[in-house]
Structures are given as C-alpha cells and as structure tokens.
Amino acid sequence: MRVWMLVCIALCITAAPVSAGFLVTEICPDGYAKGDGDEYFVLSGTGSMDGWVITDGEGSVRFPPGSISPGSIVIAREGTAYYTIHGTYPDYEIYSTHPSVPDALFTGRFQMANTKDDITLLYHDSPVQSFSWPEDFIPGNGRIHICTDDIWDERIYKIGQSRFSPETFTAESVTLFVSPDSSFEVVDSVIDSTRFSLCISMYEFTHPELAESIADAAARGVAVTLLVEGGPVGGMSSEEKGVLNYLTNAGAAVYTIESTDELPARYRYLHTKYLVADEDTLLILSENFKPTGIPLPGTRGNRGWGAAVHSSGVAGYFRDVFDADLAGYDIHPYTPGTEPLPDTWKDEDVTVRFPAHTVYNVEVTPVISPDTSVLIPHLIQNAGKKIDLQQAYISPYPGGAHNIWLDYVLEAGGRGIPVRVMLDGMYYNTDGDTDNDEIVANINRMSKKDNISASARLKLPDEYITKLHNKGAIVDMKYVLVSSINWNYNSPNNNREAGIIIKNEESAEYFSEIFQYDWDGTSGKWEIGATKQIDLRYVLVAVILLLLFVIWQLKRRR
User: Fold this and answer.
1) Is the pTM of this model over 0.85?
2) Keywords for this entry (predicted)?
3) Calculated CA dihedral for residues 434, 439, 440, 443, nearest 10 degrees
4) In terms of domains, do 107 and 195 share one?
5) Is 308 part of a structural domain of the chain?
6) What is the pLDDT of residues 240-273, one digit of tens each?
7) For residue 180, is the peptide bond before it cis, meaning its omega torsion is within 30 degrees of 0?
8) Domain for residue 5, yes or no?
9) Are 256 and 395 within one domain?
10) Comparing C-alpha atoms, which of 186, 200, 250 is closest to residue 229?
11) How far is 63 from 52, CA to CA, in rounded Å?
C-alpha cells in the first residue's frame, strides 16, 4: 500500500510541477495599437500556473488548468494587435483574436488604464505582489516598465528597444585619433582595407570623399549596409540625399530609421557614429561623416575623438547592436532621388599637430544608449584622482532640473578630485540663459565660493579648430570615453548612441595631452610640432659643441 502511495505522489509531481513562485517583471499598459490591444504584462517564474491570478480590481486573469510556465510568459490583451507592434505573438491573449494564441481566462473587465491603475498578483487568493502607477513608475505611450529586484524603471524602455548588457573585451590593438588632425586617414584606411562587409550606423553623412571610398569598397565586392537617421534636426539635407543616392546606385543597401504617422521610432534619434568592418574592426568616433567632422588631411575642422578597435569581440558586440537596430519596425529602405554627390569641400589648410597612435592589449567596454549609458555616471562617481571632461555642450534636464551627470562631476570636485570641464563656445551654445557660458561661469564660481576643486573653460573657434564637437572624458589617467553621447537628458535616455570606455594609461595620456593643448596651448610629446622642437634643441646643442670643438682645435694649432 505504501509503495502505491509513493508511486501516485511521484506521478502527481511529474504531471503537475509545483510552482516556484511568480512575479510580474514587465508591463506595458499604454501601447501603440488602437484601443491598446497590444498592452501586456510578463509573468516570470517556472512551474505550474494553477492558482495564480492577476487582478486590477475590475477584472482578473488566470490560466487554463494544467498550464506550465517555462520561465516567463507574455500575456497580451489581444494577440493580433500585439503582433502588429512587436512582430511576434504573445504566449496568451486575454481576448481571443488569433487561433494559434492560447486564451487566458478572465472575469470582469480587465484592461489596464494608461495613466493610473493598480495591479495585484494572487496565489490561491493570497497577495504576492502589488504595484500601481504613477506611484511605482511613470507611465507613457509606448513605455515598457521593468521590475528588477523590486525596483521599477531603472532604465527607460520604449517598445522595440534593445536590451544589451555591459561586456568588456581585450582588444588586440586600438588606433587612437583626433579631428581635425588624423581622423580622415584612419577612417579612410579602415574603409579601404575592408574585404567582406561594412556596416555603418551614422546620424548624418555628407562627406563625398568617404562616400567614394565606400563606393569603391562595394565595387570590389564588399557588402555595404548603411543605416542613417531619417529625420535629423532640420531635416535631411540635399547634400546627404546626394550621398545616399550615390551609395545606393553604387550597390550599397541604405536604410533610414524614422517615425511614421502610425508609429513613433524606437529612439528619439539614431545619433550613432560607428562602423563595423569585416566583423573584426570597430571604428567609433564623436564625429559624423561630414567634411567638418572628418576633415581632409591638413584641413581645419571640428575637435573630436575617435578609435579604431581591432577586436572580434568588440566588433561582434556592435554588429549585434547594428543588426538589432536594422531589424526594427521603424526601418525603411532608402528611395534614391536625383540629388548629386556633393562637391569636395574643405576649410582652410592647417598644420597637423596630433597624429594617430596605436596601443596594444587594451581593455574596451562598449557603451550603448539607452541600454548601458549608466556606465558613464558610474565611471564619474568612481573617480579617485582626476577628471577631464570635453563636451560640445551640457544641458539642464527638462523643467530646468539639474543635469545629474554634471552633478556627479561637481560632487567629485567637492571630494577634492581635480576636475576640468571644457565646453564649446560657438554662438548657438552660448546665446541662451542656461547653456555653456553659464555652466562655465557657475563651475568657476562654485570653485571659489564652495571650495570645489573644479575649473571650466569655453573652447572658442580659432585658426585650427572650427568648433568643439567632442563627447569625451578622461578619468584618473586610466579611462577614456570616446562616444557620440551628449550630456543632456535625451542622449543617454532616449537616443540610440554608441561609445566605448578604454582602460589604458597610454590611451589616457594621448588624449590628455590633446586636452591640455585645447585647454591652454601647452605642447606635449604627442604633438608633431613639439617633437620637432625637441629635435631642434638637440641639433642646437650639437652645433654649439661642434663650434667649441673647432675653436679648441684652432687654439691647439696656434
């Protein structure tokens, strides 16, 4: 008898796995579909779903007897509406719209309100989890709210956005460069050496010479794919249309990411500036593919930083980002028009000061907005020795709120860590009441009044640099940030951006000396002119010694 009882118990356990507990870990109460048919929530947990109920006080949802969760399940209001937005079907739908989607069981009227509602998860009528909005999170159209360790919305999500996690790689080598000095040579060299595939993600592209190099790559059999922002500030220029027309006709696959009347784009802007070559090289920079951003050799242009990273791991990471962006619902094949390729344009000739420099066995961490942009404030908060920050601009948050990234920088200064902040001084970054010149003045005022170890300067246009367009930082003479991420609210939270953090003292020294030159004109060993100056001094000493030797010989003969 006891044996049969044990067998029956075993059979029951096998037939209906005991639930290990469930939680609502994701919810979207305000979707894009008409009538919010795509609203959904995710229930995470493994095992039997018998006895589990979710309710909003007006209705409740449970599951057919014997339902088993493999780890997490998606429950949508309407499966068909969910599919039109997400491109996949949910695991369950509340209101039956598609025969292949299992129906959840509901009572009453279960529909999550857009702006205010309460949700309770019950197990055999006992509350397990409760939350509400706007108390626990701030709802919004297309907003996805995620709960991690009982904390909601550590990051802002919108429907369709990616969820990459931080990873760190060791690159075989990294070639460092700056605009206007050495960017064109490095960028053009990477394109020219590409053999198989070239994936380019760029906010704006108006550079005719780089377009010609890419067309040459396509002509020799390289598979070229270009993704650009379809609605940049001010609209797409005729020069950019000319470049896209030219590349499309040359065989490149060209796409835009942009909103439609039915659906907003996943990101406020695709503001990235990177390319992946042959899946083993990443080229990343602060500059767009424009004549001022990547000036022709020996030509005046923007100040910006860049790096060519030779690492299959780093390149593979960014290729995954590129593929995820290209797979979105907001991607549109570019339709070529009649605009011609722009004529060659360059600014005044200048003396090149800082050549490219290659470092080896370097630790590189990708930074992707909005997925992992939190790595930047973490870097600032953990600074222990020094921070040099060079940005096109720093803006207050919406409603005049403090820019929390700048607050972290000033907090470091308050701890006695030397901080230097350099911002662009162009008129459009200084003509408002809360922009770069006010920020510089406030930092310098706080330095004197509050004894904060911080100083700030504007970088004004000169005969060498047209404007400061960089978005970089050097921390503790060990870490370097090279990125497209501006210090405002939208760039880290709502845009698609890309950058890397390089952990390498030689890299920090390279960019630090360029920063120092921009700060006060001081030369360093990386500057070409400084090297020549040192050489001339040695020559002068040698000449003096030679003259003394000749004079000594003449005196001996007498």
Assistant:
1) yes
2) Hydrolase, Lipid degradation, Lipid metabolism, Membrane, Transmembrane, Transmembrane helix
3) 150
4) no
5) yes
6) 999 999 999 999 999 999 999 889 999 999 999 9
7) yes
8) no
9) yes
10) 200
11) 8
